[in-house]
Write a structure and sequence with these properties.
alpha/beta, Aspartate Aminotransferase, domain 1, Aspartate Aminotransferase, domain 2, seven-stranded mixed β-sheet, four-stranded antiparallel β-sheet, 10 helices, about 35% helix, binds pyridoxal-5'-phosphate
Amino acid sequence: MSIRPIHGGTDSGPAVLHDFSTNANPLPPPGALVQALQAAERRHYPDPQYRLLREHLAAAHGVAAEQVLPTAGGAEAIRRLSLAAFLLGLREVWVPEPGFGDYAAAAQALGLQPRGYRSAEQLLAALQAGALVWICEPCNPSGSSLSAETLAAISARATLTVIDGAYDALRLHGTAPTLPANCWQLHCPNKALGHTGVRAGYVLAPTQADAFSQALLAKVQDLAPSWVLSGEGQVLLLQLHRPEIQAWLAESRQQLREWQALQQALLARLGWQQNRTCTPFWLARPQLPWPDLRAQGIKLRDATSFGLPGWVRLATLPPSSQLALQKAIQS
Ligand SMILES: Cc1ncc(COP(=O)(O)O)c(C=O)c1O
């Protein structure tokens, strides 16, 4: 059985007009960001140590530069962290279910059989020391979120807890839980910034690092290819915490909240079952039968690979795309 994870968004087929299957921010990115990316240095290697970038990100997060590890995106970070943990002896891996497929794929590629958890209670009942636990906060595909207390309980038990905050900047409802100081964090801002083609992310090692985390930090660094982050990736990360970009993100969230309310009302009128969410994407069960939308330039993320046949994950898109979806369904 192939362990290649399945993803929404761009595929090998013709371009999609209304892509409800990607979790990337659908709003046009700010001009300043686009210009900065266009001006990215491509003729020379980035600093192999990424010193300025690491200092910049460290200042933004209030941590030491040594805790910041640039990566070629979240997907690369997941593979590298998994391999480093494996090399340090961890053999038990817990992944959220439903959850982003790369956590399980990374474990399977190392010959491990990851264990899925459907709830924090289930995880806590079975969790032993020696385990790596992946947490997606807020979670893709469900848009669910855990409390600070739950995160603390999990990270107190696991040997390594990695919190993937890929969609934290796109949290539309509720407040983010405080993350325990002994957790590893994964930041992949290309989705919130509407630039998933730029492969850039970073890992934050914990502020309260035990002996295992210190060894892991060294191992994750040793496993990085030279210049793991491209010149334009570096620019994306340097732009992220600028006040104009943060203001644009806040405006995006407001716009997405309004569009999401319209879209949820539309799908309710069409009789779709919809789960609660705190993100711009959520799980829904369409009325069956539903037409081949891909042929009509519309793509939804089939949730079968998340273990949810008959369900889809869909993202919030503007009213024009919602209308196109409505027409295609009713035609
Ligand atoms: C939860 C989650 N983490 C990580 C990633 C990987 O992101 P990237 O490699 O583009 O940074 C994705 C992409 O969809 C994701 O959904």
